[in-house]
Amino acid sequence: QMQLQESGPGLVKPSQTLSLTCTVSGDSITASGSTWSWIRQSPGKGLEWMGVIAGDGFTVYRPSLESRTSISRDTSKNQFSLQLTSVTPEDTAVYYCVRGLTVWGQGTQVTVSS
Fold first, then answer.
1. Contact criterion met (CB below 8 Å) for 24 and 99
2. Most exposed: 2, 28, 43, 83, by fewest CB within 10 Å?
3. What is the distance, to the nearest Å, from the Cα of residue 114 to the centroid of all Cα atoms in its chain?
4. Dihedral sign (CA 94, 99, 100, 104)
5. Nearest C-alpha neighbor of 83 from the set 33, 11, 16
6. Cβ-Cβ contacts under 8 Å for 28 (sequence gap 6 or more)
């Protein structure tokens, strides 16, 4: 059974970098044709797709976030990670890692506040 689990700090100060890791079990992040995304949901707003890393390592980012977003992976640990720089309170959200668009982690709350 495939499972995704997000981890990282729940509180980040404005202007700092938000870093989250998704640990995957039951599947390989290098599987051919696989895609691994980060999606967030801010209070009172809909889901926002942030970016994706494919099984071959190719990445695509949401244009409005591209200058601040980086998705990377550690294949030895079967993990992929999100970095979002220069955060503001607008980046406060529940962050999800997702396999394709069908298998979701439980989500992790990140609050940006001083």
1. yes
2. 43
3. 22
4. negative
5. 16
6. 34, 55, 78
Q: Look-up: residue for tokens 């979002």?
A: 84
Two tokens, residue 83: 């970095």
Could you tell me which residues come within 8 angstroms of residue 105 by beta carbon, excluding any fewer than 6 positions away?
3, 4, 5, 6, 22, 96, 97, 98
Q: What is the pLDDT along the chain (114 residues), one digit of tens a residue?
A: 999 999 999 999 999 999 999 999 999 999 999 999 999 999 888 999 999 999 999 999 999 999 999 999 999 999 999 999 999 999 999 999 999 989 999 999 999 999
- Secondary structure (DSSP) of 53-65: EETTS-EEE-TTT
pLDDT of residue 33: 96
Write b or e for each residue in 13-51: b if 16 or more Cβ atoms lie within 10 A of its Cβ, otherwise e.
eeeeebbbbbbbeebebeeeebbbbbbbeeeeeeeeebb
